[in-house]
Design brief:
mainly beta; Jelly Rolls; 8-stranded antiparallel beta sheet
């Protein structure tokens, strides 16, 4: 991953009440986007070389030479969202500072002080809901301003040096919880003070305002000069979670990620994940995948595990012949950069896998950090593992000890990630997972029909007694199996990417008018669910939420896609269902700048939707 090297070290000094010295160094810095401006002349697409897919459009007035982009003398604006002199990148929550540490580094050349007015780049502008951030030239002395503005505060600071001198300079703007800094060629000025949450739904514009007035003035604030690279970074927790726009990595039906053919009986797909679908090329401990089995010729199960290791005695999803079944899995990445998917069936099946995020590798010390584990079986009532050897009785509860089992430490654990399977039920019902020693919530984690085998991932807080409870909400008995996939470190989660477990709470139930109007979701309809400030989710500072989503009473087959509110819907799905079925899946979905997540019903029929929150990731 390319880094932009800053200037030489200099002694600290004081200028006009602002400390000047070395820029603050974040403990763990992750690249969100990197635009190297290496496109040849005539290109129309600005390529994000970080692998995160944040590409942009190139205005026709911009000159490219394969090494840098040159923005010409001011062209008067004609209005609209894309001007000929802009580089414009699609809106992404990853380009919002939110409340986290946020770093933007640009390499630029400005020919003269006379040309030193304009906005180098910005996301939003004055009056934009949610605030804005920008890098601006002052138009007088030829200095750089880094400016971050939120609905509750602001922080802007000028550079100490002049940059309008026809020389190349490296400029870094950084916003942290306590200050804003502007660094030019290694020399930093700073303004102390909290800015607040900066999040909007506008695109990022390089070279001028996203929207400007069609008048013969400088209202567009066009930049004049050259830019050779722009890098956006954020500070993240070691083992912290980073959501990505869902991207398809595997589809054996079309030959994506594997040969175009169903997976053979007892066959294994070795899927490369590093550098794909927004996942970095290194420094990743685990990925979150939504795995779907479809077109199966016989019943079976799928086991996911790190590439290059032995398949464990565990399963992630179960399927019957002809069914389409999906489940979220969190799987460690092997040393070879792959994850393996094993088809535990005497028949063939096609496999689809969409990546929804990843966990960073690093020292496991920060509260809320995630530790992936090789899947290990903690419970199997068919064999007397973790509980008596007998099906769980109607309305019965298993109290499962998780600390010191399957790689989970004896202490310091806030929550565990379990793949829970109900098998052989004698009547329809559901399973609720919750912390041991606490009151059972009004929520469910998986639903089953008589005789079915159904699995789902659950993230459940660990009780003070070191257990989690699994309640059988059925008038019949059922066997239960649980495999652990990882755990979260205990403590107050305050760092970007850290996870905060919550007692399950119902945020949405269209049957009862909770979170949306009472009534089924229409064909092709979308529910915009407000999640900030609901169900113990904070009102600000939330990167993504963990929801257990259920569809029920569907009048036709379909699928549900969860995505950040106010963004474009991805070409992926989180759960598939058939008419009349009740289907559940865990989803990890980024929160939009408007504080919502969207749930789209891709069906020709109506369906009822339910969503229970299990936790959130800190922004």
């Amino acid at each position: 991953m390319r880094k932009i090297v800053l200037g030489l070290a200099v002694p600290a000094l004081v200028l006009a009440g602002m400390t000047v010295g070395q820029p603050a160094q974040a403990a763990t810095v992750q690249t969100v986007a990197l635009w190297n401006m290496t496109e040849p002349a005539g290109s129309t697409v600005l390529v994000d070389s970080s692998g995160h897919g944040l590409n942009g459009s190139i205005g026709t007035s911009i000159a490219l030479n394969g090494a840098y982009a040159t923005f010409p003398t001011i062209v008067r604006g004609t209005g609209g969202t894309i001007d000929p002199q802009h580089l414009e990148v699609i809106n992404s929550p990853q380009l919002n500072p939110g409340t986290s540490d946020f770093i933007v580094t640009v390499r630029l050349l400005i020919p003269s002080v006379a040309a030193s007015f304009g906005n180098v780049m910005q996301k939003g502008q004055t009056g934009t809901p949610g605030g804005f951030w920008k890098i601006q030239l002052d138009g007088g002395a030829g200095r750089v301003l880094c400016d971050f503005v939120s609905p509750t505060g602001s922080g802007g600071v000028f550079s100490a040096q002049v940059v309008a001198d026809n020389l190349w300079h490296t400029v870094t703007c950084e916003r942290s919880a306590t200050q804003v800094t502007t660094t030019v060629d290694g020399i930093t000025t700073r303004k102390v003070g909290a800015v607040g949450d900066v999040s909007n739904t506008w695109p990022l514009s390089i070279g001028g305002k996203t929207m400007c007035a069609a008048v013969p003035s400088h209202d567009c604030d066009y930049f004049i000069g050259s830019i050779s690279s722009v890098q956006v970074q954020t500070s993240t927790t070691a083992f912290g979670f980073t959501p990505v726009a869902p991207a398809r990595l595997l589809d054996t039906r079309v030959g994506l990620g594997a040969p175009k053919a169903p997976v053979a009986p007892a066959g294994t797909v070795h899927l490369p994940v590093l550098g794909a679908g927004g996942v970095p090329t290194s420094g990743v401990s685990a990925v979150a995948l939504n795995v779907t089995a479809t077109g199966s010729t016989a019943a079976g199960y799928i086991t996911t595990y790190p590439g290059g290791t032995t398949a464990p005695n565990a399963s992630n999803l179960n399927f019957t012949a002809g069914a389409t079944v999906a489940n979220l899995v969190v799987v460690p990445v092997g040393a070879d950069g792959t994850v393996s998917l094993f088809n535990g069936s005497v028949g063939t099946t096609d496999l689809v896998a969409d990546v929804t995020g990843y966990y960073l590798a690093g020292a496991l010390t920060t509260p809320g950090a995630f530790a992936p584990l090789a899947p290990a079986r903690l419970l199997d009532t068919r064999a007397g593992l973790g509980a008596p050897m007998a099906p769980v009785a109607p309305s019965g509860t298993v109290h499962l000890a998780v600390l010191s089992h399957g790689g989970v430490p004896a202490s310091g654990v806030s929550a565990v990630v379990l793949n829970v399977t109900a098998t052989g039920p004698t009547a329809a019902g559901y399973i609720t997972a919750y912390p041991g020693g606490t009151t059972r919530p009004t929520a469910s984690n998986l639903n089953f029909a008589p005789g079915a085998t159904v699995a789902n991932v659950v993230v459940v807080p660990v009780g003070a007694d070191g257990t989690v409870s699994l309640f059988n909400g059925s008038v019949g008995a059922t066997d239960l199996v649980a495999d652990v996939a990882g755990y979260f470190v205990a403590g107050a989660s305050t760092t970007t990417g850290a996870f905060a477990a919550l007692a399950p709470a119902r945020l949405l139930d269209t049957r009862a008018g909770i979170g949306a109007p009472a009534g089924p979701v229409a064909p092709g309809g979308t529910v915009h669910l407000a999640v900030l400030g609901a169900g113990a989710v904070p009102a600000t500072g939330v990167l993504a939420v963990v929801l257990n989503v259920t569809v029920t009473q569907s009048t036709a087959a379909g699928a549900v896609t969860a995505f950040a509110g106010g963004t474009s819907m991805p070409a992926t799905a989180n759960l598939d269902y058939s008419a009349g079925a009740t289907v559940v899946n865990l989803v990890v979905v980024p929160v939009g700048a408007d504080g919502t997540v969207s749930l789209f019903n891709s069906s020709s029929g109506t369906t009822q939707l339910i969503a229970d929150v299990a936790g959130y990731f800190v922004q």
